[in-house]
Design brief:
14 helices; 0% strand
C-alpha cells in the first residue's frame, strides 16, 4: 500500500510530477494492500493459461487444414475430450498446489525486497531484470530437468509430463505436483537475487508462462517473433525432446539453447536435424515429394 494520501503528495515526495504510468499505478494501488497485489499472480497465471493456448487448440480441433503445414507432429491428433482433460488436470494441480503456494509465499517475496511503491522502474531497468530472470531460470531449469530424466526422477515424477509425446499449449504445466513445485524454484531465484518492482514481477510471471505455452504449442510458425530472440529454443526445439520421449538425453533447456550446447546435450537433436537435411536433399534431387517438416517422421534419435 502506498504511503501517500494523494497523487500530489506522492509527486512532492519524488520531487517531480508523476509519469502517466505512475499516475495509473497510484490510482490502482494506493489503497490495495501489498499481499493482495502479489496475489494478482494467481489471476494472471489462470488467465494466461486459459486464453493463450486457446486459439491454436480451436484451430486444431475445428479448422486443422489452416495450420497443418506448421504442425510439428502432424500424424498425432488429439480429440476435444483430450484437450479438455488436459486443461482440467492442470487446473486441479493449480487449485490444490499453485494457488495455495502463491498465498503462503508472500512473506518470502517481501523478504527479498520486491517493492510496490514509487517510482516505477524504467523500461530499460525492467528489460534488464527480465533478461537476468530468464537466464537464471533457464540455467536452473536445465539442471533440474536433466536430473528428472534420471531413472528415479523420470519414473516417479517426470513421466507425467511426457504423457504428451506431441505437446500442446495446455500441456505446458501438465506435470506431477512435485515437478510443479520443484521447477517453480528457479522462477523465484532471479527476483531474489535482483529484486524488482511488483509490476516487473507480474510481467515476469506472465512472460514465463507464455514462453512455456509457446514451446509446447506443437507448431513452428516461420514468422513467429520469437525467432528473432538470440538462442531461443522455441517449439521445434522442445518438441523434439517430447518426441524422443523418456529415453531423451537431449534438449533439456526450457528457454534458450546455450546450456544444451555447452554441456553437449543437444547432440541427438543436431544429428536429427542433419539427417533430415540430408533426406530433404536426397528427395529434392530425386524429384520425390515428402513431408519432412520438423520432427514429423518416425525416426528417433536419443
Amino acid at each position: 500500500m502506498l504511503p501517500y494520501a494523494t497523487a500530489a503528495e506522492a509527486a512532492a515526495a519524488l520531487g517531480r510530477n508523476l509519469t502517466a504510468a505512475e499516475s495509473l499505478w497510484f490510482r490502482y494501488s494506493a489503497r490495495v494492500p501489498d499481499p493482495l497485489l502479489y496475489y494478482h499472480n494467481v489471476l494472471f497465471l489462470l488467465v494466461i493459461f486459459t486464453l493463450a493456448p486457446l486459439p491454436l487448440a480451436l484451430l486444431e480441433l475445428r479448422l486443422p487444414s489452416a495450420i497443418d503445414a506448421y504442425k510439428l507432429q502432424p500424424k498425432t491428433r488429439l480429440s476435444a475430450a483430450s484437450f479438455a482433460k488436459c486443461y482440467w488436470d492442470v487446473m486441479r494441480v493449480f487449485i490444490l498446489v499453485v494457488g495455495p503456494l502463491q498465498l503462503v509465499s508472500y512473506p518470502t517475496i517481501k523478504l527479498v525486497g520486491i517493492r510496490t511503491g514509487l517510482p516505477l522502474p524504467t523500461a530499460g531497468e525492467m528489460v534488464a531484470q527480465l533478461v537476468v530472470y530468464f537466464l537464471i531460470e533457464d540455467y536452473g531449469n536445465y539442471w533440474i530437468h536433466r536430473l528428472l530424466h534420471g531413472k528415479w526422477g523420470y519414473e516417479k515424477i517426470h513421466r507425467v509430463h511426457h504423457e504428451f509425446t506431441a505437446p500442446i499449449g495446455f500441456a505446458a504445466p501438465y506435470a506431477h505436483w512435485a515437478e510443479v513445485l520443484i521447477l517453480g524454484i528457479p522462477s523465484f531465484v532471479g527476483p531474489a537475487i535482483a529484486p524488482c518492482h511488483m509490476v516487473t514481477f507480474w510481467l515476469w510471471i506472465i512472460l514465463r508462462q507464455a514462453e512455456a505455452i509457446d514451446t509446447h504449442s506443437g507448431y513452428d510458425f516461420p514468422l513467429s517473433p520469437t525467432k528473432y530472440i538470440p538462442f531461443y529454443g522455441g517449439a521445434e526445439y522442445h518438441d523434439y525432446h517430447h518426441y524422443v520421449g523418456g529415453q531423451s538425453q537431449s534438449n533439456f533447456a526450457s528457454v534458450f539453447t546455450y546450456c544444451d550446447y555447452i554441456y553437449g546435450t543437444d547432440k541427438g537433436y543436431r544429428y536429427h536435424k542433419e539427417h533430415l537435411a540430408k533426406m530433404r536433399e536426397q528427395w529434392r534431387t530425386s524429384g520425390q515429394n515428402g513431408e519432412l517438416n520438423g520432427v514429423n517422421h518416425n525416426q528417433k534419435s536419443a
